[in-house]
Amino acid sequence: MSTPTSPIARYNFHETEARWQKVWDERQTFRAVMDRAKPKYYVLEMFPYPSGRIHMGHVRNYTQGDVIARYKRARGFNVLHPMGWDAFGLPAENAAMEKKVHPKKWTYENIATMKTQLKSMGLSLDWSRELATCDPSYYRHQQKMFLDFWNAGLAYRKEAWVNWDPVDNTVLANEQVIEGKGWRTGAPVERRKLTQWNLKITHFADELLSRLDTLGRWPEKVRLMQANWIGKSRGARVFWQLTDGSGAASSKKDWGKLEIFTTRPDTLYGASFMALSPEHPLTAELALKDPGLQHFIAECRKTGTAAAEVETAEKQGYKLPLLAKHPLIPGKTVQVYAANFVLMEYGTGAIFGCPGHDERDHEFAIKYGLPILPVVAPADADLKSFSVAQAPFIEDGVIINSDFLNGLGVEEAKAKVIARLEEMGVGKGTTQYRLRDWLVSRQRYWGCPIPAIHCDKCGVVPVPAKDLPVKLPDDVTFDKPGNPLDRHPTWKHVDCPKCGGKGQRETDTFDTFIDSSWYFDRFTSPGLETAPFDRQENEYWMPVDQYIGGVEHAILHLLYSRFWTRAMREVQMTSRDEPFDGLFTQGMVCHETYRATDGTWLMPEEIERVDGSKVVRLSDRTPVEVGRSEKMSKSKKNVVDPDQIIRDYGADTARWFMLSDSPPERDLEWTEAGVTGAWRFQQRLHRIATTALAEVPPAGAPKPAQFSDAATALRRAAHKTIAGLTADIEAFHFNKAVARLYELASSIDSAKAAGDDSLKWVLREALEIFVRLIGPMTPHLAEELWQALGHRSLLAEQPWPLPEDALLVDDTVTVAVQLNGKLRGTIALPKDAPKEAAEKAALVQPDLVRGLEGRTPKRVIVVPNRIVNIVV
RNA sequence: GCCCCCGUGGCGGAAUUGGUAGACGCGCCUGACUCAAAAUCAGGUUUCCUCACGGAAGUGUUGGUUCGAGUCCGACCGGGGGCACCA
């Protein structure tokens, strides 16, 4: 990579960028102070994990946020734009094991490095509010909130089958298992039965779902993903009386009622079997005396949860010595099975099988030779030939073979059967959610300690508030796998706060997603020791007006944060429901991949393009295979270091490139050509401005009474750019904003003022507008030019320019003339010319006349200021 | 399997409510400057026919609605994302 240089390139970005960063810093330009007289605007980008160095994804994310922050500041808002560190997490522990460096040291060193890097980008951040989640002054409040939630019944311990990541040696929340694999390690998760801490996110399931509709400034896609994740289903619980089906006449045991959940109570008359989850308590009870069942349960457990395995896994059942009495058909009983496809975590862990109208039940019934009765038929079906023997019918239709439901539609039948079940006391209409409670225990060291103490006598006891924070011990070892806290010689041994007897600290730590579920609240009062935040400050600044981050957090982080806010509301810490008013999800930064002949991946700087198309390896000139553009990742080496780009081209160039061309929500391809293009434009701008400056009148020169045509044209261009660009920034159309700025730059560049004094004045006006408009995007260059224009103030503190409305509309418009909808030519008309005039002018347009070939128009359609269509 | 999004020049992408398709940038071509190169500046650049004027076709394919479709509707093809034995 080489820096393009030229004798004309006088703009020294190195010196300039450092100088203005220092000025902003010293003058605390971006410090946010509560001021009720001013409207506030809270801009936040998802805070980084301090992994070592910033990457291009950060550069893109923070550039976008900074454009908004600087723009809103110019619009008169009191802007809060803070930065912090999502500092707990496994990579720190992995580094400890691999590099023998303490996680704390590793983390804080990374923070220092990355802070320097972020500062070199010239971001308008209020660094006085910086926080790190691994700091006890942060997590003490988190521990306190957890105790409050616990007290309010929102946190609890439960033994359950959980997802275990065998590589990271910890449990994972449901949201952290992607296609049956751990979200970080990609290792297939294992099932383990453990007692773990959970947060009751399901308590808010309905609200988390219904409130999505009110998040108007969130991407539709994210709301949809959350809605699917919460997964609301309407249906019924139905109670089936169990009886002994073993054939033993003497058995008198009362097996009680089996509760099942179904979304299709309308198909109850088609029931042919019952199925229990292998993990269902009743299955376990029966297994005690049945080695065959024990074996079956063990086999089911072996099958992984990976998508591929589940897809191919055959339906397996184990016949239990039980029959279930049909709640609606007197005298009818069906066989009860344990079945591998029934999930314990959903509904009641038990189902009724209706093979006629469910694919899984159908497959099961075929395998075990169970009856398949149709109870729903298509409205137009011939009932004599209609059959579900080959395949289930799962669409809407008309109920048949179902007594009092016959003839009804599916939805009507559902309502009617639920009413009947409730009447008879054998069922109940219910709503079921797919969402599970949030499992927050992690068997790891580098996280926030869970403030609980286990006592043999008192059970699990909360750590008293006065003893917070429960600090992580520093003296831990990483020489063995497992949780260093658990094997620490002294840390966990404490007295029970309740009885004073011997107790043991909880050695699990919190899921780090808790840390990021309230940091935006902490930014409103970062130094406060007595509480997570000051209520007044919090109510002034929150909610976040614009949140920006990757779509990969569409469910995890965003859903957890929405939950945490509600949990805080439940314990009267806030009255707010939602933390993020506006959300924008930015695309990834991609780059081509390169492979050497031996198959190894190559870094972009290890290759060279020859003759435009051929690519060779720099070191030995061997050919290189160019792969498609993919997300920058260390494993494929297609990464470009932001530091190097900023060093070679400057922060403004990096920022400008990030905003150009690609719409911000889409993936961006990083190319060398694109960067040099952005760099050249910075140089060109500086040249255009300094050249024009030689001609323009001084700042504050009186406005001319009259403008020449050329001057008016440039004024129009400049003022239209203000209006267009303002709308573009509001709509996150940064690529279009950039295109407008290119156009205005060209207009300024081509304006030749020689002898035209009004144009000279306009040249200054246009330059001033231009410099203000690029301020949010390339702040250093803008500040430099602002000063060159003769201002002593800081551009960062200047208001946004407003367009003169009169200059936004043209006197004449170009109207297209069409013949049968095809363009023939154009005519110039005064704006808002009457329809008759437009029609008259169009009918004599030469290209149209030729196209008409003497035919008479049948009809003429006139769209004012746009089009005249002549139909023959 | 279910749900959702997207297909526009060589490339990234523009295109209010249906109303002049290809803004702007990159790349490429030609020219100017230069001993030369780089940089810079000027012009050109959807395809086909034509010296030109001009004309024809054209937004994944296909059918439809309309005076008029990149935009709306149907079917299909291709790419991407989410969920996934959720009863």
Question: How does this structure look, described?
Answer:
The chain has about 850 residues and is an alpha+beta fold. The chain has 25 helices and 37 strands. A hairpin with a 7-residue loop joins strand 13 and strand 14. Helix 8 crosses helix 9. The two termini are about 60 Å apart. It binds one RNA strand of 87 nucleotides through helix 7, strand 11, helix 10, strand 15 and helix 11.
What is the element layout, followed by pairings?
Blueprint: H1 13-27, E1 40-45, H2 56-74, E2 78-80, E3 84-85, H3 90-99, H4 103-119, E4 131-132, H5 136-151, E5 155-165, E6 170-172, E7 177-178, E8 181-182, E9 190-199, H6 205-210, H7 220-230, E10 232-244, E11 257-262, E12 273-276, H8 281-287, H9 291-302, H10 307-312, E13 317-325, E14 333-339, E15 350-353, H11 359-368, E16 376-377, E17 398-399, H12 410-424, E18 427-433, E19 438-439, E20 441-442, E21 452-455, E22 459-462, E23 493-495, E24 502-505, E25 509-510, H13 512-515, H14 519-522, H15 535-541, E26 546-550, H16 556-570, E27 583-586, E28 589-595, E29 601-602, E30 607-610, E31 614-617, E32 625-631, H17 642-649, H18 651-659, E33 668-669, H19 672-693, H20 709-730, H21 734-750, H22 757-774, H23 779-788, E34 812-819, E35 822-830, H24 835-843, H25 846-852, E36 859-863, E37 867-871
Parallel strand pairs: 1-2, 1-26, 3-4, 12-14, 26-27, 28-33, 34-37
Antiparallel strand pairs: 5-6, 5-9, 7-8, 9-19, 10-11, 10-13, 10-18, 12-15, 13-14, 16-17, 20-25, 21-22, 21-24, 23-24, 28-29, 28-32, 30-31, 34-35, 36-37
Helix pairs in contact: 1-23, 2-18, 3-4, 8-9, 17-18, 18-19, 20-21, 20-22, 21-22, 22-23
The chain binds one RNA strand of 87 nucleotides through α7, β11, α10, β15 and α11.
